[in-house]
Amino acid sequence: MTESGGRRFAWAVFGLVVLLLGGTMVASLLGARAAGTGGDAVEQQGGEVVVIGVPGLSWSDITRDSTRALWSLAEEGAAGGLIVRGAHVVTCPADGWLTLGAGQRAAADDDGEQDCQVVPEIVTGDDVEPSRVGDVSASIPEWDSWTSAAARRPLDAQLGSLSSALASEGVCVRAGGPLAALGAADQDGAVPRYATPLPGGSALTTYQPGVCDVTLLDRGPITSHDDLLTFDAQLDVLLRNLSPGTSVVIAGLADRDDTVGVRAAIIWRDTGDPGTLSSATTRQSGLVQTTDLTATILALAGAGIPDSVSGLPVEIQPSDAPVSERVSALRDLQGGTGAAHALAYPVLGVGLVLALIALAALVLTGRRRGLQVTGLAAMAFPSAAFLAGLVPWWRGSPQWLTLSMVLVVLMAAHVALAVGGPWRRHPLGPPSVIAAVTVVVVGMDVILGGRLGLISILGVQPVTAGRFYGMGNVGYGIFALSGLLLAGFLAGLLRSRPMARRTAACLVIGGLGLLLVLVDGSPSWGADFGGVPSLVIAVGVLGLAAAEIRLTPVRVLLLGGAAAVVAGALMFVDWLRPAGSRTHLGEFLQSVIDGGALEIVARKLDQSLGILVRYPASWIAVVVLVAIVWAVLAQDSRLGRRLVPLWQLPMLRPTVLSVLTALVIGWALNDSGIAIVGIGLAVAIAAAVAIGAALPQRQTRVG
């Protein structure tokens, strides 16, 4: 590729990226989204509220023929997937009920040791209106130890928030069954009205219409198909006895067989329309959290929602689609998110090992073309992992094989595009194509609501309730690093001669940098606070290099100030929105106003450092990062001399410095920031392998 051809290629790639991302932004602002909210939040309608907890209940359990009562509720009501995450990764039935009662992630243990088979002890007391229904008061002996444990955890769940909030409004709450008592207990662990099921009987039989405004019923975990059929028959009987105007909430409040996944949630109101559940906390159609159900119960009962409840009332998006279509979509959501969570580490681990073996073999045999293709394929893996969500690979059997085949095909397509044109003749051409595709794929997904990220092995992993929308740490590592590499590569092509075309290079870096910051930091899209400062500073470092302006301590401080201003502006814009519509950007600014910012920062720092303790393998990323920083800064060192051939390409060394800046600052400002370092290094090293293998042979010899 000639020098003029390289410049034309650079402008063409830059224009396409700006056109695609910019066009998607405009479409998003005009209302185009692949996922999100937009329905009407549930409100009080005057009748009773009956909540039935069915730990482990999933959409794969519910069919038209075998569970007719559940199917009927889904057909006439609003259905969604439920994130049941408590204080631990695996949520036991008791944890799920405590989380419902607290409105914040909680767990029924005080030492971190879980036993999902244990049903906590309930001590019954005096009769309550014995002549009417035979209810008794009750208490939970372990309540104080659970409360102390909750106070020690970062989220500081206030156990009993649901019952206490209802009682403060004069709303009667009743529990049927020992697990439901955990949700109905007040902040002192007292259950004002408790109905004991008959020996061997179901808690659903304790329901009596007109006794209380809110009734919580513990069905117990679903352990077999026969158990499911029995529950459906009991549910059918209960539905026939409801008072007019009653709202029914069905919730699969816990995981099943120690398998983490999305469970089933249904809200049925006899005056409501069928539809799909969503929540402002997830910003995903068909996905709500247990804490959202806490807020929903309070809203249905006409009670205020205390600050201790982190969820928001669910929204119902009306739908005319047949129930079979809605259930099928929820099964796909359940299957895709669950399979992505289960296969993430195995697929990534096996893929890494295979890549390292291939690289070692190719280095030993001197197959430079093979090295370039392998580097490009590894660089394309993140984009392929997101695009795989367009294919329902989780329906295949075995799932790991189907996913692997889809990834291989998509990576091959990326590599074919990268080496399929005249740009392949320049070492920076093919990696520029891969980086551009990655930026567009991840960026467009984030702008349109992040649906692909939900079901990607490199996505936000919603079943662990870490994040449901926007730019997660892994996504940021992919997006930011690919974007910085692309900006540096294109600037290098535009500055193919020393002192040439500084303005063009700076324009490309500034334009791409602006897009990266907007996608990552906008409250409507990425909503990522920690990534914005690192991007602003990294883009500044790269831009100064393109303009041939030396980086001095004063300029470093100015870049830091600019990063703080940009991040603060994005937080302020989000803070101006109503409280229920804010992301964590606006909530953090509110915490600053309320004086709780230091606590949040300390919690994030503790989480970030705790990963290095809990997961010793994460130190590998730290060691590799330190080694690369040393090699780049100390060019005369043994490691540094290995990289010298790369620096003969214009702008490549400043690009690497920019990338390292983004990794270090991104790690420091994000909880679980080591994930940014790991995936970012993988992308950068893959690009370096592809570029190094494409350099002329004489340039790769190091003395």
UniProtKB/TrEMBL annotation:
Superkingdom of this protein's organism: Bacteria
Sequence intervals crossing the membrane: 343-364, 376-394, 400-421, 433-454, 474-494, 506-525, 531-549, 556-576, 615-634, 646-668, 674-695
The entry's keywords: Membrane, Transmembrane, Transmembrane helix
Name of the protein described by the UniProt record: Uncharacterized protein
Organism in which the protein naturally occurs: Ornithinimicrobium faecis
